[in-house]
Amino acid sequence: MISKLKKLSILLLPAIMQSQMVSAEVQGNDFIQVFEQLSGKHLGVRKGHAKGVCALGDFIPSQEAMPYSSSRLFSGQKIKANIRFSMAGGNPFADETARSPRGVGIQFSLPDGSIHNIAGLTTPVFPGKDPQTFLGLLKTLVPNEQGKVDFAKVSQYRQDHPSTQAQFNWLRTHNPPSSYSRAQYFGIHAFYFVDEAGHKTKFKWRLVPVAGELPLTSKQMEQLPPTFLADNLKQELITDSVQFELQAIIGHDDDVTDDPSLFWPKDRLIISLGLLTINQSGDSSCDEINYDPNVLSKGVEPSDDPVLKLRSTAYAISFGKRLSGN
User: Is the pTM of this model over 0.90?
Assistant: First the structure.
């Protein structure tokens, strides 16, 4: 128990620092509470992205990132990676054929002993321009006393808050992936590379499957069982490893960094950051990892995105509840 509390105090430090910069109007615990209203209380389970699978692999960086960043993540050495693929939401029994985002969290263990986290979704945008808008959307989805969602209310909220529409429209026009290994994952938030001279370059990362994307067919969405993604990944890894290319989309000076609901133009420069190879899955290696995307190595910095800032506090509360069995 002592070791867990020590680990908790160390990992909560970035969240405590971030919490001082988040608007008092919306706090991380507001999201934890609404997730439980939407999905029920599940003791000892992540409050967001509750259903998922652990995986282990290695990252071999390319040389393309070195001019942009001094991070040891791009030092050229092979780096161990601890990965978790997941379903969005707080339901540990979520239907894996549903039109909802899939998620990924990766913790890179750097040669100097530090860590670097990334967390992303299979949608290139977030369902709200800021924490207030996203929280308001979630509240419209909470069932009433009869256990029903007022979808007219949800629709009206989307009309009144246009930034909630981009992800919704994306999900309606893109079938969910047939495997965690055949999906593209987007960092959504903007970050900054920082080079040795202190020069900053804005970017967004994405993870592209080497084997290509392979969505479910409409027929498969109707016929597949609600749980298959973890089994598919395990079976794939029996015969071969799974690979992704980590890329960076380089932003221009006028590209927005504080609104994750907006797309950046498609003509932006894309560079390769390296190759992620996954070798095994299905163990418990990620169970006590908090994939806070604000935990970054020197040479990479977070942007002014308010949703990104709030993630630290929400993740930390979820992490603490999970470790304590709540």
Answer: yes
